[in-house]
Amino acid sequence: MKKIQQWVYRTLFDVHGTGSLPQTLEKFINWLIVANLLALMLEHIPTVHQGREEIFHDFDVASVIFFTVEYFLRLFAAPENPALAGKRFPRFRHARSPFAIIDLLVIAPFWLHYTGLVELDLRALRGLRLLRLLKFLRDVVPAIQEFRIANRGKTWRQKANALMNETPTSGRLQGQIDMVLIFFIILSVICVFLETVPEIAQPLHEEFHWIDLISIAIFSAEYLLRLYAAPEQAKDKTPLMARLTFPFKPNSMVDLVAILPFYLQFMISLDLRFIRILRVLRVTKLTRYNTAMKTFGLVFEREKRAFAAALFITFLLIILSAAVVYEVEHPAQPEKFDTMFRSVYWATVTLASVGYGDISPITPIGQFFTIVLAILGIAIVAVPAGIIGSAFTDQLRQDREDMERQIDDALADGILTEAETEVLNEERLRLHMTEEQFDVLKQRALEKRGAIADPNSREALVRNTAMMIEELEKKLGGVPLEEALDRIRGMAITEKQKAALRSLLN
Q1: Domain count of the chain?
Q2: Cα separation of 397 and 412, whole Å?
Q3: H-helix or E-strand spanning residue 206
Q4: Where on the phi/psi map is residue 357: left (φ > 0), alpha (ψ -120 to 50), or beta?
Q5: What's the half-sphere exposure (Cβ side, CA atoms, 13 Å) at 85?
Q6: DSSP for 14-36, written as a single string
Q7: Is 298 part of a structural domain of the chain?
Q8: Residue 379 domain-assigned (yes or no)
Q9: 174 with 163: CB under 8 angstroms?
Q10: How many CB atoms lie within 10 A of CB 357?
Q11: Residues with pLDDT less than 70, the chain
Q12: Which of 54, 85, 378, 486 has its CA 20 to 30 A from that of 477?
């Protein structure tokens, strides 16, 4: 039973351990809470809820069952929690903790109503479902504490930068802020689309208005915080120049477009349709949270000559084909091929292999050119796709090789300093590399340098122990337990040593 408890805690709930499943589980729970909130909102829309009552009910039951299993698994594994280790009645202590009480409040109303022990009105039951939002506290409160410890002694500007951008001291709190921003981006765009449906827009007009106001407030605060922290992202510039150039960066311009229509409507008269279009542009903010766009920027910069060549050839084919077809088709179809611009339209849709069929040649020469252009279109469209695919692969391989070289250079003396660890972690976060992958690269670099030729040899054990003691003196001297456990992750030691060290500290 003891081993099962240990396995459950390590596998599902030990966020400071080596496994990635606890962090994944936390993210899943958070998004499940968000999904429950959306479901609760959609239940108030008759056109959405009517006829789909069974689906909403099944989703609610499935969510409660999941939360119930989670509650009892946490209760079962409570004796393995380091905060309760060695204390009497660990499960009872866990059950009366604030987080456990919140977990119980989330599931209790459903089971009390379902079993018939307590009769609840449907509206009251829906209201009690809002208690599920409190489960965010289980993830948010420790993340705030972790952030405070990691940024102790930092300036307000550095803290703002750590909140808005991925840094070695950002911790989980920055990821949670990103999740909130992503949620409101998606929600605001969905609301723009739903506002075009009269059956939904009329009864929920007030709710849509408040969602837009909250979204604007959040996006405005985000923009101001990023502007305030801009000098931390451009340390080669003065604080004033960093903030003056900040609005002209691509991501900053996207952020500004997301909030500008709201403020402009108070200054000038704007068409509602124009405002709606600009609000939809908020979806472009999602590019900030996807490193693929950064990689695409590097790929485009590297292969811009190839892209330019492909576009130039495409342009030539369109112009030449349009000119020939206009001369041969205009006499036969003056109403369809009335201008060269209409011929350019035909050449473009034909070359793109779309072929709407609204304009088509009827002369033998025109039909011949259509066949030639359609065949060429297949090859032309494939060229940019091939360039992008090949360039993406090369860029990812190059990034990984650069990361390996950086680790190799940093471990030239056999250890990682705090400054070296910070730089490498920034690069790891940019590449979305897991800690396990990062540890493999570090281990490979250590072996390459001869630091641990044979990890099981006595010499290697002595050498690694000395390195560990040296790093402990530098990194863990006089810091709280939580911070000590967090800092162990960045050490240039084996996973077994990390596990032993965590066990010793606990």
Answers
A1: 4
A2: 23
A3: helix 205-228
A4: left
A5: 12
A6: -TTSS-SHHHHHHHHHHHHHHHH
A7: no
A8: yes
A9: yes
A10: 7
A11: 15-20, 120-127, 269-278, 281, 286-298, 381, 412-419, 422, 426, 429-435, 446-506
A12: 85
